[in-house]
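Could you join me in thinking about how sequence relates to backbone shape in a protein? To get us started, please write out a protein record for me. Would you write everything just below, so we can both look at the same thing?
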Amino acid sequence: MTMGDSNKNLYAKMIVDVVLGPVLEKLEKKDVSAAQTLRAAFTKVDNTLPGFAYDYVKGILKKAEIHDKFDLCETLLQLGGSQDCEELRISRQEPTFQELNKCATALKKILSRIPEQIYDRKQFLETIKEIASAIKRLLDAVNRVIAEVPAADNGSKQILEDRKKEFVRYSKKFSNMLKEFFRDTNQNQSVFISANYLIYQTNLILRTVKQECC
């Protein structure tokens, strides 16, 4: 499992989104109270001790003696496109909001294919084009959502604008990381990390829209 603690907080947040979130959602269907208690406990502990979810999972993997059998960063990236829990879906049914759901899911799915395709240059170049198009579609969808926020609600508009700017910043970092990778193909792990950041930023957009508009 090739990763250090330098990206511990990212791994912890991704674990919450793509591992714990879906598990708790399944539990919720059988025992709502237990699921809510566990969710609240993880949230509280992670706020007090940032990166707790990472340490927790890392400890379980070591205890099971499988921590060196796979790359957690790569696995989280692959799960990032396949796990779509209720917490990361916007409930409003208007076309603008449902289009944002659709664009976010599409981008995450494309990013999650990177570990399988990065070693085939021709295929990976096509995937990069798909990612660029998906990023543009997502930003267009975010802009349409922002446009629908009432003019009187300047606070929410600004919060969404700030979240969009943060996403753009990580998109540029991802683009720069790809350039580094094509200069040095040993940088694949850094590409995985950068893609995970982009998935997490996509999830943050969804959470922010739910918080400000739903």
